[in-house]
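Feature request disguised as a bug: please show the residue count (468) next to NAD(P)/FAD-dependent oxidoreductase in the output. Example input:
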Amino acid sequence: MRTDLAVIGAGPAGLAAALAADRRGLRVALFDAAPEPGGQFYRQPAAGLRAERPQALHHQWRTWTRLRDRLAASSVRVLGEHHVWCVERTPDGPVVHALLGPEQEKPAEVRATAVLLATGGYETVLPFPGWTLPGVVTAGGAQAMLKGGLVVPGRTAVVAGTGPLLLPVATGLAAAGVRVAALVESADPGRLLRHAGALAGKLPEGAGYAARLLRHRVPFLARHTVVRAHGDTRLTGVTVAALDAHGRVRPGTERRLPCDTLAVSHGMLPHTDLAGSLGCRLDGPTVAVDAEQRTDVPGVWAAGEATGVGGAALALAEGHIAGRSIAARLRGAVPDPGEWAPAARARARLRGYAAALDAAYAPPAHWTDRVTDDTVVCRCEEVTAGTVREALTLGAGDARTVKLLTRAGMGWCQGRMCEPAVAGLAGREPVPSRRPFARPVPLGVLAGQHEQHEQHEQHGQQTERGPS
Ligand SMILES: Cc1cc2nc3c(=O)[nH]c(=O)nc-3n(C[C@H](O)[C@H](O)[C@H](O)COP(=O)(O)OP(=O)(O)OC[C@H]3O[C@@H](n4cnc5c(N)ncnc54)[C@H](O)[C@@H]3O)c2cc1C
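Example output, currently without the count:
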């Protein structure tokens, strides 16, 4: 199959871009690993569940219905359950390689003239004693169960960690009937106040969440952290404690909260694997883009959380700009930024909020003090903090050397989960790894690729020689 534009990711950024490009006459293929478009923010219940009021679980439902209806009326080819494992650069333009269906074994490829990476972000969870017990889930995971599966993870939950995501998760669980025993936020509200000017436009949203927490009687424990999750075969409770101004536990403040669910998150990181393997320049943990959302690789654009975590509205604005830029550039025209001025203004304002929130929310300094040696850090390879520390004392100074010495990061997730923890234990900032593939790929698929390339080459040589 050949298309003008391949959009990877059908969240707000990918949807906005696909619609903008379709409207300007491009053939667009919209890939997503999920069966339905929507991404994280507009995640929809599985069709078989026949949800009667899915809007009850969502904010900004009107925006979603507009996007959904415009997509249905468009010519965009929606390719659900397409897990993109690689975008290959070829002289004829990018080739998108995907694995189909829930089994992710059958390959598919689409040739395109341009690619937009709108792959979103994923949650960071830092380890603490007991975090691998059944009943401990990520905050986004709890929300995905609710929005996508219409199920709650338990009866009594503690929502903990740091970041704005904890607010919709705690209020969403409470509205669904879960008793939320506490929202435990490690950030200091004083830091939010310090950025009050930059965040003034976010006040109504914050006030809305505060009202919902009050209505559902959810205790809000600011400058607190979970120091341990308890249970033998599954979670039975957590110990929380207050933090001092330096992020250390204040002795004597520990108390136990019984619960069967702990929904935890320590912030988000952009998905940069596809960008990295394409050779796009990264700016810290994000894909670097210009004012048109172009990466430094010709024919490759990026938008949404892949270029910086900042919320669904920012993703929509960036996607819209990218779609318009791609449509103009593929026609051979230089786009007029004046055409997307409102989206550019929204982008500047929302990036300002994102920077302020980023500065206000951070995992507590000294979080590693509370990670005991027997705490598992890399879940895939079952590597403990003690083993990582031993590697560090042997001279391993970065995540890569720790990986070689301990296997931390060599498992199924390829370090996506444990990298921030390993970096923290090493006293360094996490640096995104360059991974050749964005997903695990069956060897049969790789072998098939190799055979195809060989056949192409042989065919090319025969064509050059002419018929014998
Ligand atoms: C777990 C989670 C929960 C969140 N909950 C909230 C919330 O409650 N409120 C809020 O304001 N914000 C929330 N956010 C943030 C919000 O979802 C984002 O701001 C917004 O959705 C970003 O839009 P996006 O289009 O950049 O990415 P996303 O909405 O994340 O969409 C990216 C899409 O790309 C697809 N994708 C990624 N890699 C591949 C691949 N290799 N192959 C195929 N498809 C791929 C994913 O399946 C996904 O559908 C959440 C984020 C996460 C990660």
